[in-house]
Every structure is written in C-alpha cells, then in structure tokens.
Amino acid sequence: MADRITITPPPYAAQALERLERGGFEAWYVGGCVRDAMLGRTPGDWDITTSALPRETEACFQDFPCIDTGLKHGTVTAVIDHFPVEITTFRSDGVYSDHRRPETVQFSKSLTEDLSRRDFTVNAMAYHPVKGLMDPFGGLSDLKSRVLRCVGDPARRFSEDALRILRCLRFSSVLEFFIDPATAEAAKSKQELLLFISHERIREELQKLLSGNRAAAVLREYAEILFTVLPELIPMKGCAQETPYHCYDVWEHTLHALDAVPPKPVLRWAALLHDCGKPAVKSFSPDGTAHFYGHEKESLRLTEQILSRLRFSKRETEAICALISHHGEPLPVSAKRLKRLLGELGEELLFSLFDLMGGDLSAQAPHLYAERSRAIAEAKELTEKLLRQKECLTLRDLAINGCDLLELGFPEGPLLGNTLHILLEMVLDGKLSNERSILLEEAQKIKLSFSCTK
Ligand code: ATP
Ligand code: MG
C-alpha cells in the first residue's frame, strides 16, 4: 500500500512523531510538508496527523510549551527547539453551511478518512519514516505530472469551502502546476462563493498567488475568478490602448508587467494595480489616439479602495500607493529629482520603483524599450552614486536642526519648520551646500525677511 519514498524531516519534527508513537498513537507527517519535500522544496511547516485525541497529544508533550491552536478542530501546536509543530487528530469534517468552515468535526481513527477531507490530491498524502507513503487518492502520480486535482468531487469541495478556489490558483502559481480540467471547471463555476470568504483570507491567498512564478499565467487563465474578489479590475480586460506606446490592452499589459517584476509582494501588488484607473479616464483625440490623462490618480483611488477593503497594513498600503503614484516618472530622471525621490521613498522603495518602471516598460511597445531601459539603468547607477556620496536627502541629514534655529531666536511654531524645509529644498537643488555656517546664515536671512513682511 505504501510507496517507497524517503523524506528526511528536521530533528524537531522527528522528535514530535516519536513522542506520539511512544505514547502508543499512530502519527504521520501530512499535507504541505510531504508535498514540498517530494518536490525538492523546503517545507515551511512540518504538520503531523495522529490518532491521539487533543488531550492525549498534550499529555505526550507535557514538558514542552503547547498552544491550543484549535482544540475544537483537534489541533495542538507543540513548540520543540523553538519550532512550532501543528499536531492534528485524524478527523472528518461535518456539514459546511457557510462555504468556509465545517460546523462540526468528528475525530476519527482512520488516516484515510483524514486524508479524504483534504483539498487536493497532492496535499492528501501522509508519510511515515518506516511505513512509507500513504497516498489513497493518487497524489504522487499527480505530483509527478504536476497537476492539481481536488480530492473527490471538485464542485462539492469548492462549495464546502470556497477558499479552496483561491488555494488552487495559488498552488498553480507557486508550484507551477496545471489545474486538472474538471477541477478548473468547478473552480470557475463556483467562483461566486468567494464572496463568503473574509477579506483577510482573500488578501493572504492573493498575495501568495501574486508572488508565484506562474502568477501572470494563472491570472490570465482565471481572470474572472480574480475579478470576483477585485471587481474594480473588470474594466481593464478589453480596454484597448490606441497609443503609439502600447501593444496590449490594459489587462494584458498589466499581466506582462506583473510577470516582469521580481516576486516581492509589494511590487507585485503595485504591478497588478498600477494602471487599474486607466479605463475610467480613457479619452480620444480627433485622430483616434487614446489618452489616459490622470490615470495615476484614478489608479491610486481604486487601489486605496481595494487595499482598505482587503485590510492591508498602513505600511504596505503606503508602499504600494507610493509605487503606483510614481510609476509614470518622466525619463530620464535628473540627480536633483532622484535626491527628492530618495528622500521621499527611501532606498528600498526607490529601487522597487525602478523595477516597476522596468516591468511597465517591458510590457509596452518594443520600439521604446532600448532608450527607456537605458534611462532606468542610468537612474539606478546615479542613485547608487548618490547613496555612496552620503548626500543630504532629508531633514535628518541637514547640518542644522530646530534647536539651532531656536538659538537663532526663531519663535516656536510653523516658521521654524518651514525654514528647515526651505533650506532642505535649497540644498537638494544645489543652491546651498550642506554646511552649518552657510545654513545658519541663510536661516538668519529668512528670519529677517519674515519679520520685515510681518
Ligand atoms: P503552505 O503551508 O505552503 O501554504 P500547505 O499545503 O501546507 O501549504 P496549509 O494551509 O499549511 O497548506 O495546510 C496544511 C494542509 O491542510 C494542506 O496541505 C491540506 O492537506 C490541508 N488543508 C489546508 N487548508 C485546507 C482547506 N481549506 N481545505 C481542505 N484541506 C485543507
Ligand atoms: Mg503548511
């Protein structure tokens, strides 16, 4: 029954398995860790499935910190050598009434029953170092042919828990697997049920999907599923760009840009959303050329709406929005402008902006590529040079601060802050050098002119 496969789990996971067996229980590695180990990927977590009931599991790990992750659902997390191991009792799921979670679960004595509740065949395998691989649903064969297939009837499995639809797309993107036709068909036919899924879970799954190697290909094939959760993007598909700069419609351009940027979440989100405002602002000149005046602003508005609905953190929202609002930065970028961008965005985000601009460019008409990509490369080099020279970029780098102005007799209040900003602008523009005596002299002049005009 069990195939001869060898997987080498890390010592902390092996210890967890041994403990349960020493307690007289059956225990197996299960799910993602078995799948990933067989694919040669490093598993994130080593989950264990066991015949022990939750209280019995806790008793086996008395001398370890244990977290009741979900006792009701049978999960105990034991922390071994600082690594959390999720240990779940064999179970079968009861009725699903909200398209997300079973109302009840029944603990079971059967490993096969436990595997049958799992979503995809490649996730429904268990491994034991002596007993080998337990694979009742053909997971190994699907893994070899890189196919995602639901365990059981796909339509039923997706309507039980609609999050599986996004998990399916996510695994297809990350693992570079194709989706079996019957599973794909069911995912499409049940897509409306995604409206029952919490915004946080949608964000988490989309983020993983976007960071996968096949993100663009999956979104191209399953665009309607994405549009169910991000309806703001619907008008992008089929929105032609009758301009000399473009060779694709807005949606196809977006997918090409997405494919071309490195798989960092913030960057991939920015690539997905950078032009989403284009359809709403499209206009034509008399010769039939299309224009998208103000599209950055409209893209930003829709992006803020999407990110707030999906409960993004303030930090991520700011980063994604900053990339979108600057993605149309005119080329070439002068040193003066780069200093301002560095001050505003910081080093990491500015380099992400260059990546986004590069991805955006590679998804435009090819005749623009050579000149503009050279300009982006030059902007990167110039930025590196500015960073090496430790240029003054923000108020923090200025050779004087608020206390110096107070000593000069500035009153507390807006004039003080405004003066520092004026001085920074002058330094950034190269009109003043960032030297204490020079800045103090200029501040004095500003103070005088202010008292004259008062
Ligand atoms: P990764 O950890 O890389 O996200 P994973 O497959 O380990 O992938 P988890 O969410 O950690 O995914 O879940 C562990 C296992 O639990 C899965 O491999 C699968 O067997 C099962 N599982 C998780 N979520 C579901 C679900 N919504 N429906 C059915 N089975 C699920
Ligand atoms: Mg996992």
Domains counted in the coordinates: how many? Answer: 4
Poorly predicted regions are: none
Relative strand content:
5-15%
- Biggest beta sheet attributes: 7 strands, mixed
| Count of helix runs | 22
| N- and C-termini, Cα separation | 92 Å
**Spatial ordering of strands, largest sheet:** 3-4-5-2-1-8-9
- Please compute the radius of gyration using only Cα atoms: 28 Å
- By DSSP, the count of extended strands is 13
Helix content: 40-55%
Mean pLDDT: 94
The set of bound ligands, ions and cofactors reads: adenosine-5'-triphosphate, magnesium ion
Instruction: Give the class-level CATH name of the largest domain.
Output: Mainly Alpha
Net shape: globular
CATH architecture of the largest domain: Orthogonal Bundle
Quaternary? single chain
Q: Structural class, judged by helices and strands?
A: alpha+beta
